[in-house]
Amino acid sequence: MSGRGLLIILAGLFVAGSIFMVTYLQRSEDLTGNLNVTYNYEAAKNIANAGAELAVNRLKNDLYWRTGFTNVNAQNGRYTVTVSDTTYDGEAAIRVISTGVANPGKSTQATYICTVYVYRGGVPPALKAAVCTNNPIEASGNMDIDGRNHRLDGTLVPSSGTYGIWTTKTFVRTGAADIGGTSVTRIDYSPSKTPPAAIIATGQTYPGGYPSSPDSILGGPAVGYPEGKLKQIAQSRVNGSQYTTNPASLTYPLRGVTYVELPSGSSWISCNIEGSGILVVHNPSVDAIMREVNSGTFRGIIVVDDILHVQTTIIGAVIGLSPLPSAGNCIGNGVGEILYSSEAIQNTTGSLAGVTGRNVMLWKE
Fold this sequence. Notes:
- By secondary structure, the chain is an alpha/beta fold.
- The chain has 5 helices and 25 strands.
- It has 2 domains: 3-122, no CATH class; 129-342, no CATH class.
- Helix content is 23%, strand content 37%.
- The longest helix has 59 residues, at 3-61.
């Protein structure tokens, strides 16, 4: 081969090699860029999820928290979280939107948004009225029982309430007792000594049988309350919950789940109920008695075997378990009031969602 031919071959190889190197370097740069994009995207995703997780954990301890977080630094980036009330799948919910940003302000900045729906709390189907019982019931004295819907401060929420009384047996009103409520056609009736039949349900049959335990009142295993769950929560002391066999040992205000398990046939006399949440007074014999409920305002759900003589304010709902109360059936004989409140009930069930495994309805990435 002549020298000129060899030079031509070498020149060709040099050009081909140069083209290969340029192509290789370009592809390497593209690959590195793609890896960086993927890495930054995953970083932003992790930051967004971290912000959402912090918000969900905060809601477990404070269902009323709506402040959110703004531009919180985290993992070479930042997150912003908004929290608002909404509905999801027909149920009251809290929407958490977390926006994560990786490498903010740089050419490699990446953004990711995740949305979480947290259970806000609902009204258990068993709570059909301001007062529900599985036994004959009487109201006398200056007792007010009002099934119209109320806010936590006692103000009315029009056309959104329920029965004043719901019982599987009979109801008798005597003295100056007043009964109010909301009919199934959404008409509100103020408390009156001559309440219409539309707000008093007697001789009722509960589908599947009347609930026989506090956990079944809350909906049972299907919604996170297998038998013994409420007692377990109370014994864990989560969110200020308390369990006792001696009401004198309670600390106030009541919070979370307060579970008073009295010996068979025993009474809690002169009850101070100041506080909120779920108050359970129950034993396996279904004959624990609350007598003379005369101190404190309670906001939430009271589940009790047998209750007599309410002389203070309850905002939420009261439900009795015993079909044959040993101490009689007069729920009120003095100046007292039971005001139905879906807000108080929903706040109570929602605040316990985290410990029953129901709090996160959807985590959307």
